[in-house]
Amino acid sequence: MIKLPLIKRTCESILAAALLLLATAFPSPGWAEERNFNMTIDEVSIEVAPGFSNKVFAFNGQVPGPLIHVKEGDDVTVHVTNNTTLAHSIHWHGINQTNSWRMDGVPGVTQDDIKPGESFAYKFKADRPGSLWYHCHVNVWEHVATRGMWGPIIVDPKNPSAIEKSVTKDAILMMSTWEGKYANEYGKGGMPDDVANYFSINAKSFPSTQPIRIKTGDVLRMRLYGAGDGTHQVHMHGHDMLITHKDGYPLANPYYVDTVPVGPGERFDVIVKMNNPGYFVMHDHVDKHMTNNGAMMGGPMTVFEYEGVKPIDGYVWEGKAFDPNFFYSVSLTQGYGLFNSAPFMGKPVEQRRRRK
Ligand SMILES: [Cu+2]
Fold it and tell me: Under 8 Å CB-to-CB from 41, ≥6 apart: which residues?
């Protein structure tokens, strides 16, 4: 005679096996997934402003680096190959490296640096959600402050808040500075006496930046990053910005501002109800930053252009070629993965002889 508990156990085993099979065939967004990416580091030159180009060490040939978009709990592997003439590493800024401290990217503490021609595989769990980023951790004075070695990693939370769910348009804005004196001299720059003379959003200074085009009723999330060495006072006209997250952490009490101070390493998520049709600027309120090599006007500036509103005669960006992905707004609608971005690609520079 078959005992009842045995039947129960058998049924439970069959049910568990069926559930596992289903989950494998149709992984729900809530399940951790493995993400494998490849990145190179290349020597290219990017045009920051009209007439000003800067040699950089660029992740996948672009500055900012490609968007890495994953979900909280995912297992991430990034294979990095250094095609440049100097050593580098990658620090995953904001990832806590739970049980994976050797992946923290700090030469001399967690690993050896990645020498010219070498590769390294970073493996870690996306152990916390938010607006995170990655950057080199070798000679950060030069490589991060003036050579563009930074990019965004967005880790979606398992349980987004109601206001996060209300977002209809996303944008990433990475602020940084540049030093014209050493723009074309690898191995120099970023020291305390060196002077920054270009200031940018996503590695472009006005007028080479782009507008943010929106519709009335959009709920816009902007992720503001301090990727370089300057502190930027990001001021938006005509709207209330609700700060919801600092460094990826949700605030217990989100608060409204019209100016956000974004210092080196910091990230702020702001959510804005776009309910005031017109053309409104957003700019750095540090006056010096609004210049290109001392000439006004330049720097980190964009314009919110509402659909259906006619610009004034003589609008500064009249007839400008529009790039909808300049703030990663298109890539951020395309699910999870690594996204290269054409507008950020540099031009290859003649490779120097590798330093041993
Ligand atoms: Cu580096």
Answer: 57, 58, 59, 80, 81, 82, 83, 84, 88, 114, 149
Give distance in angstroms: CA of 22 to centre of ligand 1.
44
pTM of the model: 0.90
Question: Residue 66 belongs to a domain with what CATH number?
Answer: 2.60.40.420
The range of the structural domain enclosing residue 246 comes to: 162-324
| Residue 253: inside a domain | yes
Mean pLDDT of 177-187: 96
Q: How confident is the model at residue 32 (pLDDT cuts 50, 70, 90)?
A: confident
Residue that finishes a domain, picked among 159, 187, 205: 159
Q: 113 with 199, same domain?
A: no
Expressed in angstroms and rounded, the spacing between residue 144 Cα and the centre of ligand 1 is: 7
**For residue range 303-324, what is the model confidence (pLDDT) as tens digits?**
999 999 999 999 999 999 999 9
Q: Identity (one letter) of the amino acid at 182?
A: Y
Amino acid at 323: D
CA of 88 to the centre of ligand 1 (A): 4
CA of 17 to the centre of ligand 1 (A): 48
What distance lies between CA 165 and its chain's CA centroid? 20
338 is a domain residue: no
Asked whether residue 124 falls in the same domain as residue 151, the answer is: yes
